[in-house]
Amino acid sequence: MAMITRRGLIWEILNSLWIIFSFLGLPFVAFLYIGNKTKTTKWKVTALVYFLIYAISIVLICVSSYDMSTIFALVWLLSLFIGLIHSFLVRKEYLIRRDYILNNGVEEQELEELRKHVKKQYKGKDYIESSGNDTHLDSTYHSQINYRDYDTVDVNKNDDELKEYYDESITKGNEEILDNSEYISYSKKNTDSSVNTDGIVNINNCSVNDLLQLPGVTREIADKAISLRTMLGGFNSVQEFMDMMHIDSAYTDQIREKATVKDRDMY
């Protein structure tokens, strides 16, 4: 048997087993299968035609007289024979189409598009992937803060804009009711004491370079952590930091030993 693709004879045989359905008198199942596997409409339509012939023939055989039922039985058997021959004729095209789909990652691209579509649908209602369970933000962390899509935090937000926002005085009418110093971002306090003598990093006031000292923390993760920390006013726990930043579980134990959210005088 001459090979049609470069994937080998075994692969071609395994990907031709759908023809068995035609041998069993179910050519519509065979064509529905290859139509779905290759996203080919013509084979799906062919499957529908064979199914209609199959169903109508069975019904007519059951309700017709002996002579007519014999004719319909012959028509049915003829359709099964044609379906079997048809299956062998399209086998080569199916293998070529299947090989192309696998070589070009068509299925992976479709899955990625589906993931993007689902993520877009749930934008603003994202969940935090934890090491064990899916922990919803409103039930565990910052329960009074609305759901946010943490993967879209702008790590390039201008620090001057953030400072202007947090330093702005809060007034009621013409009367200033709060000192603006109380509204300086938590992440901007105590920036000169983020690592203690034991090398423990305070993730709530450390710099990007300090975060990079933690195992598994890349530059991208560090930048996103700083922006998210500024937005939330600090992390409640080291576990919350790891969950929000999607830290690889292989590094969680090491980070717990080297990170804290407490102030220096509480070490």
General description of the model:
Strands 1-2 form a two-stranded antiparallel sheet. Strands 3-4 form a two-stranded antiparallel sheet. A two-stranded parallel ribbon has the order 5-6. It is built from twelve helices and six strands. The protein is elongated. It has two domains: 9-112, no CATH class; 152-266, no CATH class. It has helices spanning 9-14, 19-23, 27-38, 41-63, 66-103, 106-121, 137-140, 159-167, 208-211, 219-232, 238-244, 252-258, and strands at residues 128-129, 134-135, 171-172, 175-176, 201-202, 259-260. α3 packs antiparallel against α4 (41-63). The protein has 267 residues and is mainly α. It starts with 8 loop residues before the first helix and ends in a 7-residue tail after the last strand. The longest helix is centred in the first third of the chain and has 38 residues, at 66-103. Mean pLDDT is 76; it is low at 124-155 and 161-192.
Order of helices and strands: HHHHHHEEHHEEEHHHHE
Number of domains: 2
Mean pLDDT: 76
In terms of DSSP E residues, the strand content is under 5%
Instruction: Please give the share of residues in helix.
Output: 40-55%
Unreliable residue runs? 124-155, 161-192
Can you summarize the main beta sheet? 2 strands, antiparallel
User: By helix and strand content, what is the structural category?
Assistant: mainly alpha
Strand order of the largest sheet: 1-2
Instruction: Report the span from N to C terminus.
Output: 74 Å
Give the overall shape: elongated
